Amino acid sequence: MTGRWKIGKFKCKPTVKKYAFEFADVPSEAEYLEVRYSVAFPALPTNLSGETFSRVFGANTSFLENLILDLRLRGPCWLELTGAVPLQPQISWCKVDYDFSYQKPNSIMKLSDAIRARTAVADDTRLPSLPPPPPLRLVALDIKSVVRRETNSSEIIAVGLLIDNHCYLDQPAGSKTFQSHYLVLSPPKGSVLPYDLSKKLPSWGAQYQPPKSTAATGETTNSAFSGGVDIEPNERALLGRLLTRIHRLDPDLIVGHDLWGYQLDLLLHRLNAHKVPHWHRISRLRRSAGYSMIFSRGWFMRNAMPGRLICDSRVSAKELIRSRTYNLSELAHQVLPSNQQQKRQIPPCVRAQFSQSIVASDGGGGGEESLSGIDLEVDSADLRCLFDSSAHIKDLIDFCLSDALLVLRLVHQLQVPLTPHHHHTIHPLISHNFSLRYFDSKNLTMCQNTDVPFSFHGNMLIV
């Protein structure tokens, strides 16, 4: 069989394993032949059978899953790595890449196990406490776009970011949800920027001024954390500026509303349409030039941003509360306290496009139906009117950043960052927990399934 499937070198051993899944003809406990070989050789088909065996299990198991099972990792924890050396050339966008042999004994261990082993050798019964989890860098993202009538395709006109450099997944949010902001905008095709915009921006306040270092002077690492508004001439330049900012910020967690349903899909589609160089800076893993063309759209969407956690407030809300539409306006009205700003700061020129019924119900403080209608009207409105004057540009900036702030407040109010508390019982994959549907969470809690891998990268923490 190895000759047929071109597997040149492998290791195998008999082992006893348990089975508790869908095939009724598989015994609950039996002796298996465990086979391992290099990823350089092709994987065996999952439906393969022969004269001496009936089924093949784990043929498509990833390296990460094998690592999790071998180390018996059941949730986020500190790991101790030994024998790691810097890797050149780098295969990621991280500051430093390290290479080490996983096959060497004790090259990777849970820190708690390593401490326990050292204290046992020293004959010391006092176990030192583990360091607390490090803070994550969180970025709340909101994208505004218009539809090109001639091509019936969307065009991004503004992207707003709110940055929180001290987000703790195991603690509730403090009074200050973010420390800085950033927005980049560009006029849609066929529109021009107002002639007096460069003069008006500084007069509106420090939050509207360009960052300290812009395209003209060159960016520095510190400038990535300064707030401000960047103006670009077209969508391609906007996307390039956004990638540079995300790469320098290097966020661990990106939150937004309807990220999986629309916003990330739109962002990746426009990056691909403009063939923006190094589009994969939006993630932490470097990709080849034609990577996006190789795979299907669904697979590409799920694997386009490795190394970053994605939290969609719409998906999280579906798991935690009941709502009619889970639109942003409705969720803000339903979830946020009354003493907080609940409504979206919709610009007047956009609101003027609403139907009369929506305007009347919104002005009178209507119920859920009017709130749902408002979001539908905003999504279908033509935002080109926001480039008619400098005052409208200011409305666009406020509109984009206020929506990002609403999303950030929703995430904290729903206590989505505290989901690591049930990683041990729901799913060991942190990114999967941020996007779990209700029925996934319920089934995984009942099954206590810990055979699925997780991957998380933060500052000094690998879990």
TrEMBL record:
Residues 55-330 form the DNA-directed DNA polymerase family B exonuclease domain. Pfam families: DNA_pol_B_exo1 (PF03104). Signal peptide: none annotated. GO terms for biological process: lagging strand elongation; leading strand elongation; mitotic DNA replication initiation. One of its GO terms (cellular component) is alpha DNA polymerase:primase complex. GO terms for molecular function: chromatin binding; DNA replication origin binding; DNA-directed DNA polymerase activity; single-stranded DNA binding. This is DNA-directed DNA polymerase family B exonuclease domain-containing protein. It comes from Dibothriocephalus latus.
